[in-house]
Amino acid sequence: MKNRRFLLVGSDFEPFCMALYGQGGIHIPKICADGGVRFAHPVEGELPDLSLIRTILPLKKYLFPPKDKVLSYSQDNGYQPVEYNSGKLLIFGVHPCDLAAISYLDKIFLNGEPDAFYLPRRKSLALIGVSCMPDKYCSCGDIASPMPADCDIFLYKIETGYMVSCESDEGSAILSPLSPFLHETDILPPESTRDNFSLNSVEKFPDDLSGVSSELQEMARSCLGCGACSICCPTCYCFDLLELPSLNGERAERFRIWDNCLYQSHAEVAGGYNFRKARTERFDYRYRHKYLGFGQLQGIMSCVGCGRCIANCPAGLDLRPLACKALKESSHAATSP
Amino acid sequence: MPPLLPESAIIDEIIPQTPDTTLFRLLPKERVKRLHAADFSPGQFLQLSLPGAGEIPVSYCGAPGEDGCIELCIKKAGHVTEFLHSRSIGSVAGVHGAYGNGFPLGIMAGHDIVLIAGGLGIAPIRSLLMSLLTRASLYRSITLLYGARTPDQFVFRDELILWQSSTALKTLFAVDRSDGVVSSGTLSYTTGMLNMAVAELSLHEGCIAALCVPPAAYPGIITELKKQGVEDENIHLSLERRMQCGVGRCAHCAVGTMLCCQDGPVFSYAGLRGIQGAI
User: Fold this and answer.
1) How close, in Å, is residue B205 to chain A by CA atoms?
2) Residues of A in Cβ contact (< 8 Å) with B75
3) pLDDT in tens, B154-201
4) E strands along B70-169, which residues?
5) What pTM was estimated for this model as a whole?
6) CA angle A256, A262, A265 (to 5 degrees)
7) A residues 56-95 closer than 8 Å to B (CB)
8) Of B73, B85, B242, B267, which to mutate for an interface test with A (greatest number of A Cβ within 10 Å)?
9) Which of A10, A42, A77, A206 would staple A46 via disulfide (CB 3.0–4.6 Å)?
10) ipTM of the complex
11) Which among A109, A244, A270 has the least Cβ separation from residue B78?
């Protein structure tokens, strides 16, 4: 079924979902009891709410949990890696921006020697994407990520239901038993849903941010340093390592925990020297990381335009106008004689 | 071996240098094996684990050798290093590495070499110096300038005395303040900031400088080096940053858009020009 497209009529959506749920572990976007929008287990008969625009946390919570035990130490065996084994988990209803974010995280954690803790989790995920319409916080239309929105199955919303596109062998294995609900088609998905994400994709952000430095400084002065933007960002991945001993000192466990570049301790070294003591320096660091990329990912913009940072910023900061200005100035500079 | 997994080593020797700084010699726990982390070049670093305390990046301070011994000169400055100083001979440690880019030994032959260390910056500089001294005749000249805050804070004192009387290199030791101490064994030193001591060296074009000094000391020293005609491409700096993972994934140690753990910790000054916050 790979690389083929099918129509799923609206009246078949519920039985399609129920049959899908029957295949094993599945998480869907839903409004939880506390009012928060999350990817979580459906309760009996609950359908995914595909009208929800953004979950509180993106999918990095599955691939790179906030606190992850990575090593255990014992006097007899020294340090040993913690093995992670889990069955397949299907995530249904992932928007293109969140899929692109996974493509970015894959570059961080799988390029070169794959990260031993990310890899098995990544392999255990199957992804069903769904098209969406951006809201006021999204920036996928203006400054879209160059990352591909790869997934196993993608659902395009159309008037009569969904167009289901099978994107991988795994997607094929998932869809095969669901074929009674699917009617093959060679019609292309409508423009509005197909291209909304990849429109205006930014291949390379300008290296020189000097044209926006005064705006950046101004914005940094309003930043509260709470780190909410980084916590909810689908491509923020920086981590700290924390080791906890047993009381008798014979055993220890090492955890990888989410860190945050807006926190004061992020650049502090032994002896107390801090390379980014000022909040404005930390704000600048985050901005540069997002738009310019570090190390092997230099030149790859990691903002996927999901809008979580804007929706969650208590100071109401919005980097989009700044990013747009930087892009505009660089394209202007490129075209002027 | 999976990355980030420490190999088991034991502390084989503990040689106090100052009240808060100690030289530790590590060997593999299983003596027949060689630690992967024992293969390095001067200027690289390893990640040192103390079970129950955690992991820290540390520069090698010895020369890479056939004995597979790892030398680390460590100051009590945080909870891992405090814990390390409470350990005794035979205690277990974990190591993994080597990481990062070291000093460019390959381009140094035939040149005047000046090594500048401030405080514990002597650790990677000693590693480089020991490597240079194994084939000293390859280099036009070798000069070591080492500054400490006060005379009692010089580490590797016995070696400093030997180097001071050696014909293979010139030495200049400086202290920020002498605190009324007029002599310190047979070690001679001047009083004044490191950049003032650099001004006293007579360097010229073609000289290659390798530096590891506290962050605040870099600008003054680089200005002096450039004044004396040392070219940006020939100034090599070992930068310190918070490096949690060593493999370019934890995103703490960026210098501009480069990563200190992978693109450094040794950078040429030419590569750092114009990068805000680099030095």
Assistant:
1) 32
2) 270-271
3) 999 999 999 999 999 999 999 988 766 655 667 888 888 888 888 888
4) 70-75, 92-99, 112-118, 141-148
5) 0.92
6) 60
7) 70-71, 73, 75, 78-81
8) B242
9) A42
10) 0.89
11) A270
B77 → closest Cβ in A73, A237, A271: A271
- Pull the structure tokens for residue A43: 């309760």
The residue with tokens 């940006």 is: B232
Buried b (16+ CB within 10 A) or exposed e, A152-190: bbbbbbbeebbbbbbbbebbbebbeebeebbeeeeeebe
**The dihedral of CA B241, B244, B247, B253: what is its sign?**
negative
B222 touches A at CB < 8 Å: no
Q: Which two tokens stand for residue A206?
A: 């300008």
Among residues 233-292 of chain A, which lie with CB inside 8 Å of chain B?
237-246, 249, 252, 254, 259, 261, 266-271, 273, 275-276, 281, 284-285, 288-289, 292
Closest Cα of chain A to B51: distance in Å? 6
Token couple for B124: 């990677």
Residues from chain A contacting residue B29 (CB–CB below 8 Å): 78
Residues of chain B found within 8 Å of residue A112, distances taken between Cβ atoms: 247
Q: pLDDT digit of tens for each residue in chain A (337 aa)? A: 888 999 999 999 999 999 999 998 999 999 999 999 999 999 988 999 999 999 999 999 999 999 999 999 999 999 999 988 878 999 999 999 999 999 999 999 999 889 999 999 999 999 999 998 888 998 887 777 788 889 999 999 998 999 999 999 999 999 999 999 999 999 888 766 555 555 556 667 777 777 788 888 889 999 999 999 999 999 999 999 999 999 998 999 999 999 999 999 999 998 889 999 999 899 989 988 988 889 888 888 889 999 999 999 999 999 888 888 877 776 666 555 4
Two tokens at A245?
């001993």
The helices-and-strands tally (H runs, E runs) of chain A is 11, 12
